[in-house]
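Protein 1 of 2
SEQ + STRUCT:
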Amino acid sequence: MSASAQKAKGWLVGIAVLCGIWLIQNGPGG
């Protein structure tokens, strides 16, 4: 896996985590 691919994957994971936290706080479960 290239460094750029790892960086892109890291960004996607980070964004997914942030979206998940936001949904938990602001979604129907909050």
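Protein 2 of 2
SEQ + STRUCT:
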Amino acid sequence: MQPFKAVAAIALAFHLAPSSIASAGLLMGILFAFIGLTNLVDPLANLFTLPIVRGIQLGLGLILIREGVRLAISPKAGALVIAGVPLSPWQVALGGAAVLLIFKRSRRFPSALVLLAAGVLLGVLAQRGEWNFLGWGPVPFEVLHPRVEELKKAL
């Protein structure tokens, strides 16, 4: 299982603050260092069998699906306007699902990459080809200081 993907899924689903996500990363780093230093990797691998790992992955996937559907049908979500045609978020989501199904078995064009390219194309078309929306340039650096409450929430 990929723990940082799990944190990302949980952070999206539960609308966690960046400092809570940083707290989770800090705690995972400490936990991984402890597991590595004490040679607990093999006993833990035997404890968490493949069905348990797959169950956790399924649960996180269902959380992401639920959040995606919630975002797609949210009344707050605005329409994406391309060439004067408004597309609602659920129409874009259905189009993305169709792309995934169409390219599911393609070896030449992996479905995830086609979907990514389609998303970039939609974003550019929605901005009428203006590239200034991308915000090129340095990103401000911010050090997050987790508080005790956030560390508890991250557990």
